[in-house]
Amino acid sequence: MKYGARNKVNAKVKSVKSDGIMSLVKFDVTSPSEMASVLTTESLEDLDLKPGDKVELIIKAIHVLPIKQ
Amino acid sequence: MKYGARNKVNAKVKSVKSDGIMSLVKFDVTSPSEMASVLTTESLEDLDLKPGDKVELIIKAIHVLPIKQ
Amino acid sequence: MKYGARNKVNAKVKSVKSDGIMSLVKFDVTSPSEMASVLTTESLEDLDLKPGDKVELIIKAIHVLPIKQ
Amino acid sequence: MKYGARNKVNAKVKSVKSDGIMSLVKFDVTSPSEMASVLTTESLEDLDLKPGDKVELIIKAIHVLPIKQ
Amino acid sequence: MKYGARNKVNAKVKSVKSDGIMSLVKFDVTSPSEMASVLTTESLEDLDLKPGDKVELIIKAIHVLPIKQ
Amino acid sequence: MKYGARNKVNAKVKSVKSDGIMSLVKFDVTSPSEMASVLTTESLEDLDLKPGDKVELIIKAIHVLPIKQ
Questions:
Q1: Does B60 touch chain C (CB under 8 A)?
Q2: Does residue A5 sit within a domain?
């Protein structure tokens, strides 16, 4: 099974909270990992990112897709 | 500084690759972390997620927003 | 009326379910259609996609924008 | 294998076009299908969607995730 | 024509820059406007947003869909 | 603080409405602004966008990330 996405994080479910329409699930990340971001080259130049730079990666929870075997 | 998003990952830039319009940046995650996903309650029920379940979290690179101080 | 998006699917509303903030709508697709995906060239190479290959296309419901005349 | 997403479309690769960073893949949808959208209840009320209503569903190609077995 | 989205901004094209696969378009916003955000109630509570609070709204360019009549 | 995104809009909170899982926040935009969109070059050509063209920019509220200092 191969996914057309750069980020695949192994995780374990920690908690589940549900509403009528939407649910929020929290996970513990179980392995150290690498992540990737695609952004415009203009934004990259504004950020002036170079290897070794420290950043925070922000991801809205709605963009995280859980897959279970 | 506070962000309206559940996922904040500390990371270090590993590599940068640029095109005219878009760029791809790779990061090493520098701290173990927790992640959150919002999905429909219907999808949650299909997945039948319970605490302790192992999952893969898939995130397209385009949804990862780097922030630098 | 022209949209800056590759995917336009003709559909008919099948059901509507509402909460205070969010709603979930189900549709029957009324015409056979073509779809498009943009992904990193790295992900494409990992998937090794060639014409004729069978795939599943996964789309979170939050990314589907209904338009009505 | 179960995905935390409402939309799963069976498709066949039709064409592939690549750049240094990003690629665009076109697919033929191989089975009639159902789709789902999550939107704010306010947007739903503005659209006044009822079963039987005809709509167009717009999805940016970047939000389509191909998965291959 | 009605859209299942909370944000509709009137704008005028300022510049266009194209690559083989992706393009970047800049716009001047032509009318003062209102915007809306959907986030988890947890994120809202972390931000502690109240009427009158000043914020910055961050939107990746990939999530902006231009429509032309 | 620099963000890897093209769109940064200054705004003031107007109203807040919360559910168990999701919340909807409305803002008044406090400064005239410029916006940017990334789309496929194919979509751009279909739209035939040229400087001066009038468009509507559609953004689902879920893609708007509020940041507060």
A1: yes
A2: no
What is the 3-state secondary structure of chain E?
Answer: CEECCCEEEEEEEEEEEECCCEEEEEEEECCCCEEEEEEEHHHHHHHCCCCCCEEEEEECHHHCEEEEC
List per-residue pLDDT tens for chain E, 69 residues long: 899 999 999 999 999 999 999 999 999 998 878 999 999 999 999 999 999 999 999 999 999 999 998
Give the model confidence (pLDDT) of F53-65 as tens digits: 999 999 999 999 9
Q: Which residue of F has its CA nearest to B4?
A: F66
- Residue F35: strand, helix, or coil: strand
Q: Distance (Å) from the C-alpha of residue F68 to the closest C-alpha of chain C?
A: 22
User: Bridge-partner residues for B58, per DSSP?
Assistant: A8, A65
Which chain F residues in 19-58 lie under 8 Å from chain D, judged by CB atoms? 24, 39-40, 42
Looking at chain A, which subunits does it touch, using at least 3 CB pairs closer than 8 Å as the criterion? B, C, D, E, F
Q: Say if B58 falls within a structural domain.
A: yes
- How many CB pairs below 8 Å do chains B and D form together? 33
Please answer whether residues B66 and A56 qualify as being in contact, where contact means their C-beta atoms are separated by less than 8 angstroms: yes
ipTM for the predicted complex comes to 0.95
* Nearest Cβ partner for E19 among B6, B21, B62: B21
Which domain covers residue E50, as residue numbers? Answer: 11-63
Sheet containing E54-59, strands listed edge to edge, beginning at the edge strand earlier in sequence: B2-3, F65-68, E54-59, F7-18, F22-29, E34-40
- Asked if residue D32 is part of any domain, the answer here is yes
Residue E49 backbone dihedrals phi, psi, to 5 degrees: -80, 130
* C33 located within any domain: yes
Tens digits of pLDDT across chain F (69 residues)? 899 999 999 999 999 999 999 999 999 998 878 999 999 999 999 999 999 999 999 999 999 999 998
Task: Report the domain count for chain D.
Answer: 1
| Cβ-Cβ contacts under 8 Å, A21 against chain D | 38
Question: Average pLDDT of C18-38?
Answer: 93
In sequence order, the 6+-apart residues with CB closer than 8 A to the CB of A14 are: A26, A27, A28, B34, B51
- pTM as predicted: 0.95
| C-beta atoms of A65 and D65 within 8 A | yes
F48: left (phi over 0), alpha (psi -120 to 50) or beta: left
Distance CA E23, CA D53 (A): 34
